[in-house]
Write a structure and sequence with these properties.
By secondary structure, this protein is an alpha+beta fold. The protein has a seven-stranded antiparallel β-sheet. Strand 3 and strand 4 form a beta hairpin. 35% of the residues are buried. Residues 699-800 are annotated as: Disordered. Residues 144-647 form the Serine/threonine-protein phosphatase 4 regulatory subunit 3-like central domain. This is Serine/threonine-protein phosphatase 4 regulatory subunit 3-like central domain-containing protein. Residues 715-728 have a biased composition (Polar residues).
Length: 800
């Protein structure tokens, strides 16, 4: 079957000296009119496109390696390789190349790779007619052999001639036999020479020599020679490490002897490259490029052989998910998959694609769902690494699996919820695992990788799924640690909401969750807006402005800044109704005259509102908070806000910029929109109580530490004579649920914030400024308001 014989992969060598897979196709050799000669042509298997068209140049050096590889260079720093599926196809094309160049097909290389200058070529010409003459392989001639090997490294032609001589005469095996003799006699001088010889032979960079030296009967002697570095007082014990310390673990016995041999060989060659050989100098950087290629193609072969052995992988998965499997055995199985996935990262995209598709078809995701929920810390960590490889490879594959899971009554079994809970319950004080998992969640919910035409439904379906079944799990710690305002406070006893607990690890976790929610605000328009408003989430987040951890307060502020940055009037009205600038201004005043990041971030928030001229927010801020802010003169931001406010007031008084909207339409739209997903909210609320309970159990172990933190927590002090309280918070929370707010309380020791006055408190206007000449219009609006209050679904006004 010619198609099978001619099936090849095309590789090119990139600038990092790594082979890149250019595609799979079928190769042919025929006369090409455009190139005026016989050319190698590879046609893509998938779509019939042309992957390669390369003229067989009479002067190009082609190399045959490992029976199924043909490698050559077409230009400086542009190397090509054809990897054949069958040896017969490789031999057929090799004969055609040799025929064009007039060479004997038995050779491994068709030409001397001449790349020196004209002068160097001239100097080499007297030697072109014969091979390098090798000294006798005897102890007395070891120094001479070492000098010969070292001397040819600077000349590509002489390197090639020496390699041919070493292969043709069986010289390598003679040298290794001589090594055993010298080691038995403890001939240190001879062993030092053998180190130089073997190292030099490796630097010849020839695949034919590597195949001889890395064979089972030779490789340990090669490692032995490299133990006797003349620069060391005592030889290294590399062979002892490879034979005794390094253990080959078989989680499932590998019956294929060829696969076992290939795994052993690859490990040992990788050890030689990474551990034994010294750091390459600038002048030696290309000496071992063929060694890297040797390892690369071995790895490709190992992955292919494991993928094809479905019986082996099926057995691994069966034992991994079997409840009867011992914990130690399961740990080894998970570590095997972790190493297997890490191994695949060296492969090219097409190879990785086939690799992960094989794992997916065998059920890697259901298996991960089970092992990630186990108590073993090592198993969880390894499973997380495997999950990260899968998410990086194909977020869509993971999303598709998650949405196809049976919708059980308990959301805890969902894979994403298992991941979120592992992030929340990370026992590492630095939350290293939580940071990694947060990054994976961010990738999964990122619409940027859902933009392919076939993924349009994926985006809406997955985000709806995530907000219905998973968002309440993610926000559970945030809601559990931002307490509601006590509604039983007597008048004059209102307090700033406490943050409980406020230890460092909890603060880090809340910061991670806020970072993810901030990402959602930027990228999920409808879903996150609905969630924020129905759960009154921004108010709960702003409670964290009271945290003793400044980085957490900044995360809360950043969340609000992203919301305001959208310049969405729905969000603006929500902020004004809830009086949500109050905690931000309190934080600014408490910070006093300190010039720090918190101060700058808050100033930037108000500067943005001024520069973007967000009229509704400017009017709200000036009407309610300007008395507290007018004393801040080290920046012109607040005076600028006042100036914008006055300008708008003047324009409206002149009738130049008067714009009104039907008082009912905006609120009706908002209420209809907020009530669209009542069913989903009920499901989420039911799950939220359970998540809070689960999180509460996890936090019980932290109670002692938290109580100590509370005792040691410094009291907040007021800077300046103006201090605001959360007098509107309960009302806003109830407003979201459609109930009337309780009377607001004000602190007896602090000046209360002025309530929104005039039209600033009304919901049907954009101008939000009250003027005497608007009395007729106000009467119309009051009538409208009376009609609206009759609706049981209408959210009450905070200013009423």
């Amino acid at each position: 079957m010619s198609d099978t014989r001619r099936r090849v992969k095309v590789y090119t060598l990139n600038e990092e000296r790594q082979w890149e897979d250019r595609g799979t196709g079928h190769v042919s050799s025929s006369y090409t009119e455009t190139l005026k000669g016989t050319a190698l042509t590879v046609t893509a298997e998938a779509d019939g496109s042309l992957l390669l068209e390369s003229k067989i140049n009479p002067n190009t050096a082609y190399q045959k390696q490992q029976d199924t590889l043909i490698v050559w260079s077409e230009a400086e720093n542009y190397d090509l390789a054809l990897s054949f599926q069958e040896k017969a196809g490789c031999d057929e094309i090799w004969e055609k190349i040799c025929q064009v160049q007039g060479k004997d097909p038995s050779v491994e290389i068709t030409q001397d790779p001449i790349d020196e200058s004209e002068e160097e070529r001239f100097e080499e010409m007297p030697e072109t007619g014969h091979l390098v003459e090798l000294p006798p392989c005897e102890p007395a001639h070891l120094e001479e052999i070492a000098e010969l090997v070292t001397s040819v490294l600077s000349s590509p032609i002489r390197r090639e001639k020496l390699a041919l001589a070493l292969v043709g005469t069986g010289y390598i095996k003679k040298l290794l036999q001589l090594f055993r003799t010298c080691e038995e006699a403890d001939d240190r001088e001879g062993l030092h020479h053998l180190y130089e010889i073997v190292r030099g032979v490796l630097f010849l960079n020839k695949a034919t020599l590597f195949e001889l030296m890395f064979a089972d009967d030779c490789i340990m002697d090669v490692v032995g020679c490299l133990e006797y570095d003349p620069a060391l007082l005592q030889p290294k014990r590399h062979r002892e490490f490879l034979t005794k310390t390094a253990k080959f673990k078989e989680v499932i016995p590998i019956t294929d002897s060829e696969l076992r041999q290939k795994i052993h060989q690859t490990y040992r060659v990788q050890y030689i490259q990474d551990i034994i050989l010294p750091t390459q100098s600038v002048f030696e950087e290309n000496f071992l490029s063929t060694l890297s290629s040797f390892i690369f193609f071995n790895k490709v072969e190992i992955v292919s052989m494991l993928q094809e052995d479905e019986k082996f992988l099926t057995e691994v998965f069966a034992q991994l998910t079997d409840e009867a499997t011992e914990d130690s055995k399961r740990r080894e199985l998970v570590n095997f998959f972790k190493e297997f996935c890490a191994f695949s990262q060296t492969l090219q995209p097409q190879n990785r694609d086939a690799f992960f598709k094989t794992l997916a078809s065998l059920g890697i995701l259901p298996a991960l769902e089970i092992v990630m929920g186990m108590d073993d810390v090592q198993v969880k960590a390894a499973a997380t690494d495997i999950f990260s490889y899968l998410v990086e490879f194909s977020p869509s594959m993971v999303r598709e699996f998650v949405m196809q899971e049976p919708q059980q009554a308990d959301d805890d079994v969902l894979l994403i919820n298992v991941v979120i809970k592992q992030m929340i319950c990370d026992s590492d004080p630095e939350l290293g695992g939580a940071v990694q998992l947060m990054g994976l969640l961010r990738t999964l919910i990122d619409p940027e990788n859902m933009l392919a035409p076939s993924s349009k439904t994926e985006k809406s379906e997955f985000l709806s799924f995530f907000y219905k079944y998973c968002m309440h799990v993610l926000t559970a710690p945030l809601l559990a640690n931002t307490t509601e305002e006590d509604q039983d406070l007597t008048e004059g006893a209102a307090k700033v909401n406490p943050v409980c607990p406020d230890n460092f690890q909890t603060a880090q976790l809340l910061a991670l969750i806020l970072e993810l929610l901030t990402f959602c605000v930027e990228h999920h328009t409808y879903h996150i807006k609905n969630y924020i408003m129905t759960k009154d989430l921004l108010r709960r987040v702003l409670t964290l402005m009271n945290s003793k951890h400044t980085f957490l307060a900044l995360c809360a502020l950043r969340f609000m800044r992203r919301i305001i940055g959208l310049k969405d009037e729905y969000y603006n009205r929500y902020i004004m109704k809830g009086n949500l600038f109050e905690p931000v201004i309190n934080a600014l005043l408490d910070n006093g005259t300190r010039y720090n990041l918190l101060n700058s971030a808050i100033i930037e928030l108000f500067e943005f509102i001024k520069v973007e001229d967000i009229k509704s927010l400017i009017a709200h801020i000036v009407d309610n908070f300007y008395k507290a802010l007018e004393s801040i003169e080290y920046v012109q931001t607040f005076k600028g806000l006042k100036g914008r406010y006055e300008q708008e007031k003047e324009r409206q008084s002149r009738g130049l910029s008067r714009y009104r909207r039907d008082a009912r339409s905006f609120e009706d739209d908002e209420d209809m929109w907020l009530n669209e997903d009542e069913e989903e909210e009920d499901v989420a609320d039911a799950g939220l109580d359970k998540c809070k309970s689960d999180y509460g159990k996890f936090m019980e172990s932290e109670k002692v530490k938290e109580s100590q933190d509370k005792e040691n927590q410094p009291k907040r002090t007021t800077s300046g004579s103006f201090k605001f309280t959360f007098s509107h918070s309960a009302g806003a929370a109830n407003a979201a649920n459609g109930s009337k707010p309780p009377p607001s309380a004000s602190s007896s020791g602090a000046k209360p914030a002025a309530p929104p006055s005039g039209q600033a408190a009304r919901t049907g206007l954009v101008g939000l400024v009250d003027y005497p000449d608007d009395e007729d219009e106000e009467e119309e609006e009051e009538n409208d308001d009376e009609e609206e209050e009759q609706s049981p679904r209408k959210r009450p006004r905070l200013g009423s």
